[in-house]
Amino acid sequence: MLWVLEENHAGLSSQEISRRLEVSERTVRRDLQTLRSTGYPLTSVGSKWLFIEGQGLPTSLASDGAAEEISRDRILSLDRAVRSRHPIEAVHWSPGPLGEVKLDLAPLALHFFEGSLFLVAREHPPAGRWRTVAVERLARIEVSHRRFPRSVNDGLESYLAGQVVADAATELIRVLVRFDPEISWRVAGRIWHPSQRVFPQDDGSVIAVLRVPGLAWVTAWVLGFGPGALVLSPPGLVRGVLKALHETQAKYASVQQQLSQLDLFENGT
Questions:
Q1: Which of 37, 56, 75 is the last residue of a domain?
Q2: Global pTM value
Q3: Is 146 exposed, middle or buried (0-12, 13-18, 19+ CB in 10 A)?
Q4: Looking at the chain, which terminus has fewer C-beta neighbours within 10 angstroms, N or C?
Q5: 269 in any annotated domain
Q6: What dihedral angle (degrees, nearest 10) is formed by the CA atoms of 39, 134, 30, 44?
Q7: Which residues of the chain have pLDDT under 70?
Q8: Residue 241: CB partners within 8 Å, gap ≥ 6?
Q9: Neighbours of 74 (CB within 10 A)
């Protein structure tokens, strides 16, 4: 739905979205309200729904194919598996000591929570325990050609109405970044991620708080502000930013040597 709206800048009615996505108009209206209430910059003009001018998909959804970032192909593959009741095998990345874990799942639904997309599933073969995993943390997804029985869906509505939020929250990483007063307006004046909260400080700086499943795009986001941003948490993000800075410094060290030799040549010495 988000990509359909992104591609139609003039906006679409709930009826038009319903036809394009082949879902009920009631589902479209419900999901649009949910997306807007969780922070996506959506607005309605007459019967049309569209992104607020100058705003679009958050960085984590706009990117396509980078590590730990959500991609359109991945979502479409999972959506087809849900609708056709095909089991999947995938690798699930965890920031903790477990690292990568292989999962066999019966995918039952895609669920949106705090600006991130989650797969609701049961461990396969059915019917194992319920699992709610961030789509951003899934890699090397393989969809089986066989089907799991409809009975695996038993209890899905009650799970979505209760436990799913708590399980999804465990997939999220809390990120705190401090931005200097000189650039605080840039951070506070834009929606970078639907989960963001911005807290002004007495010295004019701001602290941005995000809850995200992966850190790859956050690392690039922080580096884009240069020395004006300082990561406070989590330690994994601090290490990621430091690693990127060290690698960049090493590259420029060799470039600097080449520039020095070039300067000597141009000066005729």
A1: 56
A2: 0.68
A3: exposed
A4: C
A5: no
A6: 30
A7: 37-39, 53-72, 96-98, 126, 257, 260-269
A8: 219, 222, 223, 231
A9: 20
